[in-house]
Amino acid sequence: MKLLVTIDRHILAYWNTAPEDRLWAYLASLPVAVLILDAITQLIK
Description:
Elements: H1 2-15, H2 22-44
């Protein structure tokens, strides 16, 4: 759970958004997360 809080804090800090704008920061970060997860799955295969 501490990891999720840390990730959340870093995403908000990176996009310089207030917590009420969290949805937009997460949507903007989603393509990067998908690319990272795809790279990890390619390495595992």
